[in-house]
Amino acid sequence: MKVTVLLMIPLGNSFENIAVSLGISIPTIQLYSQTYQDKGLDFYLENHYLGYRGKLNEEQKEVLKTELNTNLYATSQEIVDFIASKFGIQYTSTGLVFLLHRLGFSYKKTKLVPCEVNIEAQKDFCRAIKSLSFGGKTGR
Asked: CA 108 to CA 105: how far, in whole Å?
């Protein structure tokens, strides 16, 4: 956007026209123009963007990874609570999902699985085990 503003000024566009065309304020255009005059074009071509690093520092992220690799959490709220109690940092469930993805984890809500017993299959299994020979002895 800044470079576009700087290209439009020497083409004879007024600050008002640039503001309407690009949907930015006149003071912003004035700031871009003045900064260009003070620091030059190379300043605008450099990448000064620093991405969002999140709320946890690297050490805290490692502690969280270890925790998630060694313990099973049934809900995202349990992980939110762990982070709050361990580090004193609050996350929303949505924010936590983004954090887990950045750390290489995926969160899937657990489902209840009904216990379906097949009595005949269990009896067949018990008979098969009893018929096996263990070191010359039959199973009991």
From this structure: 10
Per the CB < 8 A criterion, the answer to whether 32 and 6 are in contact is yes
How many CB atoms sit inside 10 A of residue 114's CB? 4
At residue 100 the predicted structure's pLDDT band, cuts being 50, 70 and 90, is very high
Number of domains observed in the structure of the chain = 2
Assign residue 60 a region (left: φ > 0; alpha: ψ between -120 and 50; beta: otherwise).
Answer: alpha
Structure confidence at residue 75 (pLDDT): 85
Q: Which domain holds residue 11?
A: 2-45
How many CB atoms within 10 Å of residue 96?
Answer: 17
Residues 41 and 58 in one domain: no
Residues 81, 122 within the same domain: yes
Question: What's the rounded Cα separation, in Å, for the pair 79 and 90?
Answer: 11
Which amino acid type is present at position 88?
Answer: G
Residue 44 has pLDDT above 90, yes or no: no
Tokens of 103: 């750390």
Q: Is 136 left (phi over 0), alpha (psi -120 to 50) or beta?
A: left
